[in-house]
Design brief:
- The chain has 12 helices and 16 strands.
- With 428 residues, the chain is an alpha+beta fold.
- The protein is globular.
- 43% of the residues are buried.
Length: 428
């Protein structure tokens, strides 16, 4: 959704400040856990009075400050992803009250926001308001559609264009589930024709709804991964889709998620199933709420030891959902997958090439069996001049057999990964 805004502070020098809405907060978040409330529902509600967790790319912001978003989103000059000095100067003049479409009050500053090659900022809680009643009756999606823009990754160094509304979206995305800050870019490689060919070849597909967060772009700046705060993301899946995935897992058919967020969602569903005794399923608004899977949840449960056979764990989750009369499960996850993690459900991964200092690289290393094969794969990609990051090339990683030491990327087979096995691709 159009989560990216440019706002001005009311006090001089009124420079443009980039704001990125990440997840709704408030009462809904307190009900649904640390992963934040459901952005799909929040976008369909009136904008006035909503509270959102957001990135504000200005380190001098403090509680009580009010930022103002104009009726039309300001256009940035130059190729930089951040507002240029010239844009800030030309937009610094005060706008009349009637031209302010949305006000953003800083309720509290939560933490610094550090992003490589970008100005520092803060993670903050903002309260949305409607000066002059302009947005009082409008739902948030409509307001953002008129004043916001699609948040392309900052490393793309260009403005969002009208074509991005389609090209920066997967063909299997559901418009009614809009709520993601970024596209799960591995899915951009699929067209309707490719999906038809996969089905004709006997490859089954299942879908999950992912609300990718901007934290996926944040580099690891902590001295150790243990002290890195993993970003949270919301997800949902239909019980019918979960039944299909469980059936493949029980039968030993390989499961290949498309994108790192899909992989994290699959693994989080398994750990949510393992935690049903400690955190029972709740019914919230007619849907099943799984709660939040913490950053180190599996490691606290024994690390590489899987407490329940994966397919059976999912079957228990399905039975619980059926007993509660729900057809869809929702949850959030901050699961950190790093080398040493034992995958419960993922036998491979289709993914783009990632930034070297990101948590996504940790997940790739975990699937390949360590950092050495990951370095080999990326050295090959650099030598062959593959395109990295969003709109870049993708690669298929096949999980190596656990009994063998992996010495080369994308070689070998995981659980039942013979050429004749019917695979299931999980799209998100």
């Amino acid at each position: 959704f159009e989560a990216r805004l440019f706002a001005r502070a009311p006090q001089p020098p009124r420079r443009l400040t980039e704001v990125l809405l990440l997840a709704p907060e408030g009462e809904a978040q307190r009900r649904e856990g640390p992963g934040g409330a459901d952005p799909v529902a929040a976008l369909q509600q009136a904008a006035d009075g909503q509270m959102w967790r957001a990135m504000v790319r200005c380190s001098g912001v403090s509680a009580g400050d009010v930022l103002e978003v104009g009726v039309a989103p300001p256009r940035r000059s130059g190729s930089s992803a951040s507002p240029s000095a010239r844009t800030s100067e030309t937009s610094a003049r005060a706008a009349p009250p009637s031209s302010v479409a949305l006000s953003l009050e800083v309720v509290r500053v939560l933490a610094p926001w550090v992003e490589e090659a970008e100005p520092d900022g803060v993670l903050a809680t903002l309260r949305l308001g409607s000066p002059s009643g302009r947005a009082a009756g409008a739902d948030l999606a409509a307001v953002l559609g008129s004043v916001g823009s699609i948040p392309l990754p900052p490393y793309m160094r260009r403005e969002a264009e009208p074509a991005d509304a389609h090209s920066y979206q997967t063909v299997f995305a559901a418009a009614e589930r809009s709520g993601s800050v970024a596209a799960p870019t591995a899915g951009l490689h699929f067209t309707s024709q490719v999906l038809d060919r996969l089905r004709a070849a006997g490859v089954h597909t299942s879908t999950v709804a992912l609300h990718v967060g901007a934290g996926t772009f944040m580099p690891i700046v902590a001295p150790t991964i243990a002290s890195h705060p993993m970003h949270s993301e919301r997800f949902s899946i239909g019980v019918r889709q979960l039944e299909q995935i469980a059936s493949s897992a029980v039968a030993g058919r390989p499961l290949v998620p498309v994108g790192t967020t899909s992989a994290r969602t699959l693994e989080s569903l398994y750990w949510a199933a393992c935690g049903l005794d400690a955190a029972p399923l709740r019914v919230v608004g007619g849907r099943g709420e799984l709660g939040h899977v913490g950053q180190w949840a599996p490691y606290r449960r024994g690390g590489v030891v899987l407490p329940v056979e994966p397919g059976r764990g999912l079957e228990r989750l399905i039975a619980t959902a059926t007993a509660h009369g729900v057809s869809e499960l929702h949850g959030s996850t901050a699961l950190c997958i790093a080398p040493g993690y034992d995958f419960a459900l993922c036998d491979g991964l289709l993914t783009n090439f990632h930034q070297p200092d990101s948590t996504l690289m940790l997940l790739v290393g975990a699937l390949l069996g360590g950092s050495h094969p990951a370095r080999q794969m990326y050295a090959h990609a650099v030598a062959q001049r593959y395109r990295f990051l969003s709109y870049g090339d993708c690669n298929l990683i096949v999980r190596p057999p656990p009994q063998n030491e992996c010495t080369a990327p994308a070689v070998g087979g995981g659980r039942g990964c013979s050429a004749s096995s019917a695979r299931r691709v999980v799209l998100g």
